[in-house]
Amino acid sequence: MESEAAHESRGSETPRAPAPAPPPSPAEPPAAPRARPRLVFRTQLAHGSPTGKIEGFTNVRELYAKIAEAFGIAPTEILFCTLNSHKVDMQKLLGGQIGLEDFIFAHVRGETKEVEVTKTEDALGLTITDNGAGYAFIKRIKEGSIINRIETVCVGDSIEAINDHSIVGCRHYEVAKMLRELPKSQPFTLRLVQPKRAFDMIGQRSRSSKYPVEAKVTSGKETLRLRSGGAATVEEVPSEFEEEASRKVDDLLESYMGIRDPELASTMVETSKKTASVQEFASCLDSVLGEFAFPDEFVVEVWAAIGEAREACG
Q1: With contact defined as beta carbons under 8 Å apart, do 61 and 72 qualify?
Q2: How many CB atoms lie within 10 A of CB 63?
Q3: Which residues of 241-259 are buried (b: 16+ CB within 10 A; e: fewer)?
Q4: Distance between CA 147 and CA 176 in Å, rounded?
Q5: Is the separation of the CB atoms in 130 and 64 below 8 Å?
Q6: Is the dihedral of CA 233, 235, 241, 247 positive or negative?
Q7: Are 204 and 156 in contact (CB under 8 A)?
Q8: How far apart are CA 233 and CA 133, in angstroms?
Q9: pTM: predicted TM-score of the whole model, two decimal places
Q10: Rounded to 5 degrees, what are φ and ψ at 78?
Q11: Under 8 Å CB-to-CB from 145, ≥6 apart: which residues?
């Protein structure tokens, strides 16, 4: 048992000064953010060339410029690109998304040809799309149509002029509108540019009245999303709902406007996800895609088609 004297004696001791703190260690630099690996894509000219590598593009125009630089040609020589196929395959067109493992084939200008057409019916039987960089071209020819009876007109032909009026730089919907508004029974001339042909280039002419579902051409779990404004982004592959809804909207674009544009359809589906009613949807479309001036009945059908896709995909 401790004595009281010892306790008092110990309690009166001067407290020891705390041990000096160790000198501060040099500050560790903050961890550098994880850099995303460089996105490098392989490319060839569709009619035949060595393989090139391209990177550092954020939209279609920049992509074409990179391809042109790789092969020593002008960007305006490129009509359109396909993914993972050198053929003029409209199911494999490069749109607004590229799978990270996709191989890009560039189809360049070949022969120019002129055809005279007489519009004996309201519709010519053409579906138009464009490459996002100034060229509109034929994506589909309807079986039994006026154009289908002209053997020299093929899927993949770029429309350069209508009656000597250049339409280079026009969007697909503008070209489709010009063709719809041409008077009946009056001949007109189309100046077309066909893609340069390889020795085995086949399948340029579509004979089927049924247009197949757009093939999924992405091969990775992520895709590079090209945007007309802003930087490209790496995103997840679209969901089942997004793919089905975009397909339905693309079908409506063809039915109403004579164009096919999977990227436009995808943008409309994305817009719908931010809205709760068809009125809000119509208002958002006007602000985002006002240049198209979509009719009210078309917007209602698009909203309904997207709703059907959502229900079907759960």
Answers
A1: no
A2: 27
A3: bbbbbbbbbbbbbbeebbb
A4: 14
A5: no
A6: positive
A7: yes
A8: 19
A9: 0.75
A10: -85, 120
A11: 121, 123, 124, 125, 126
**DSSP alpha helices (H): ranges in 153-295?**
172-181, 240-257, 262-272, 278-289
Q: Is 62 exposed, middle or buried (0-12, 13-18, 19+ CB in 10 A)?
A: middle
46 and 67 Cβ atoms separated by less than 8 Å: no
Q: Which residues contact 131 (CB under 8 A, 6 or more apart)?
A: 60, 64, 78, 79, 80, 81, 137
| Gyration radius from the chain CA atoms | 30
Cβ neighbours of residue 59 closer than 8 Å, sequence gap 6 or more: 132, 226, 227, 228, 232
Question: What tens-digit pLDDT sequence spans the chain (314 residues)?
Answer: 444 444 444 444 444 445 555 555 555 555 554 444 578 999 999 999 999 999 998 888 999 999 999 999 999 999 999 999 999 999 999 987 888 889 999 999 999 999 999 999 889 999 999 998 999 999 999 999 999 999 999 999 999 999 999 999 999 999 999 999 999 999 999 999 999 987 544 444 444 444 444 444 444 467 777 766 566 777 777 889 999 999 999 999 999 889 988 889 999 999 999 999 999 999 999 998 988 889 999 999 999 999 999 999 87
Q: 3-state DSSP call for residue 247?
A: helix
- Contact indicator for 79, 204 with CB cutoff of 8 Å: no
Residue 123: other Cβ atoms inside 10 A:
13
Measured in whole angstroms, the distance separating CA 216 from the mean position of its chain's CA atoms is 12
